[in-house]
């Protein structure tokens, strides 16, 4: 399975090589990380030392200027070995771009000690409150789903501000020592992400450090670096620097909401690889599966589904990268297709691995089974709202119906605003497992 399909265009080969060099170590730690419900400190140090958690960091703060496909592909390859490590590279690593998109005062503070940091987010309040007070904001209460918060240097809170005027969606950065981590992460999948709760006890944050949600996720080219094809200084130092240095400027919502496809696809590919390997006897004799047409049929159909998922993955990577390099926002059609494709990719991956679990029988449900662990993790990833079919099909369906069927591949339907079903897309990230 690993040999099928080339990585997306414009993927940094050096980054992929770093992942592959560490993948065996992460695979060996995966079972223990699941039991401990957090990544080992050694794994986090490896991610930081190798630069895999700073792929999305802005070049103005010392980041490598990697393009989105490199971030997604690094997460995918790591997830074949350990899905939670892949999730941490893609989703938590993607928060470095968010840190750079905050107000200049906030981003300068967050990167004051460089890019070797872990940025967690808190996007799902339990009873969390952000209240405007003289000179700034007061934050209090609980938030859920703070991935890798055990290792975080900073936590970025995402929520609605209580204000005498109109409510406003804001992002508020807090140092790790300003929050209390509460262990409420007892789950059946993705345990090793350590996505625990945090409690904030009445912390004041100055006005200059708080950024509106729209300003953070909207178009915001720093230092005159865009928009426009080829615009901006080429200050990056990494292999992916130059025209790929766009994550700090493009409207970021689709990039952030799509990053889950890397670890999700890699998780499914890892399950397939382990299942296929289990069919070969250790003594080197003739595999019994060669005489079992049911196993052969299921294995082949799952392989075909994952091959289709890889095509969708490559298409999402290509669209996001093309828009980024072009220093432009996605068209409405591109956004609707990306939303459709990432949700259907998740559906294909779930079907493919579910079939393998059914073929393996009761053995696939043992705690020690690698396929079982990947299956548990995959189901948790597929429950994420960013790959929910119910939440993602309306935009494409509306576009297809209104265009009279002209949304097939290559139709080039011009972008338009106000696509039904997408007007509330920005607030949707609030409940995401980040």
TrEMBL record:
The keyword Oxidoreductase is assigned to this record: yes
InterPro entries referenced in this protein's UniProt entry, alphabetically: Acyl-CoA_DH_C, Acyl-CoA_Oxase/DH_mid-dom_sf, AcylCo_DH-like_C, AcylCoA_DH/ox_N, AcylCoA_DH/ox_N_sf, AcylCoA_DH/oxidase_NM_dom_sf
Region (Disordered): 408-434
Keywords annotated in UniProt: Oxidoreductase
Feature: compositional bias, Basic and acidic residues: 421-434
Residues forming coiled coils: none
Acyl-CoA dehydrogenase C-terminal domain segment(s): 263-388
Domain Acyl-CoA dehydrogenase/oxidase N-terminal: 29-93
Keyword GTP-binding: no
Compositional bias (Low complexity): 410-420
Protein's name according to its UniProt entry: Acyl-CoA dehydrogenase
Organism of derivation: Streptomyces smyrnaeus
């Amino acid at each position: 399975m690993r040999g099928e399909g080339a990585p997306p265009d414009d993927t940094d080969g050096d980054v992929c090589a770093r992942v592959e060099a560490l993948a065996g170590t992460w695979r060996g730690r995966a079972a223990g990380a699941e039991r401990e419900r957090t990544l080992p400190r050694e794994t986090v140090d490896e991610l930081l030392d190798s630069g895999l958690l700073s792929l999305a960091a802005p070049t103005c703060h010392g980041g490598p200027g990697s393009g989105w496909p490199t971030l997604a592909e690094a997460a995918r390859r790591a997830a074949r070995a350990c899905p939670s490590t892949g999730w941490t590279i893609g989703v938590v690593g993607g928060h470095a771009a968010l840190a750079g998109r905050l107000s200049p005062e906030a981003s300068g503070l967050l990167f004051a000690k460089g890019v070797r940091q872990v940025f967690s987010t808190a996007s799902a309040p339990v009873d969390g409150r952000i209240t405007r007070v003289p000179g700034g904001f007061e934050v209090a209460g609980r938030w859920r789903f703070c991935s890798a918060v055990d290792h975080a240097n900073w936590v970025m809170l995402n929520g609605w501000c209580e204000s005498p005027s109109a409510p406003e969606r804001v992002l508020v950065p807090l140092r790790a020592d300003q929050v209390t981590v509460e262990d409420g992460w007892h789950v059946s999948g993705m345990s090793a992400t350590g996505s625990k709760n945090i409690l904030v006890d009445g912390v004041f944050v100055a006005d200059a450090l708080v950024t509106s949600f729209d300003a953070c996720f909207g178009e915001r080219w720093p230092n005159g670096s865009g928009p426009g094809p080829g615009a901006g200084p080429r200050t990056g130092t990494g292999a992916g620097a130059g025209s790929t240095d766009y994550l700090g400027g493009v409207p970021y919502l689709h990039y952030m909401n799509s990053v889950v496809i890397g670890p999700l696809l890699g998780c499914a590919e890892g399950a397939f690889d382990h299942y296929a390997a289990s069919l070969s006897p250790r003594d080197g004799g003739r595999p019994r599966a060669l005489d079992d047409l049911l196993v052969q049929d299921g294995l082949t159909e799952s392989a075909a589904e994952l091959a289709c998922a890889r095509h969708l993955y490559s298409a999402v990577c290509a669209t996001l990268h093309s828009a980024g390099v072009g220093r432009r926002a996605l068209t409405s059609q591109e956004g609707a297709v990306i939303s459709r494709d990432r949700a259907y990719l998740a559906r294909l991956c779930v079907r493919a691995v579910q079939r393998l679990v059914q073929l393996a029988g009761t053995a696939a449900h043992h705690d020690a089974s690698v396929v079982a662990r990947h299956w548990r993790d995959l189901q948790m990833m597929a429950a994420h709202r960013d790959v929910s079919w119910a939440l993602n099909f309306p935009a494409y369906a509306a576009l297809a119906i209104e265009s009279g069927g002209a949304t097939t591949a290559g139709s080039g339907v011009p972008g338009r605003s106000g696509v039904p079903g997408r007007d509330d897309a920005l607030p949707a990230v609030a409940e995401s497992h980040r």
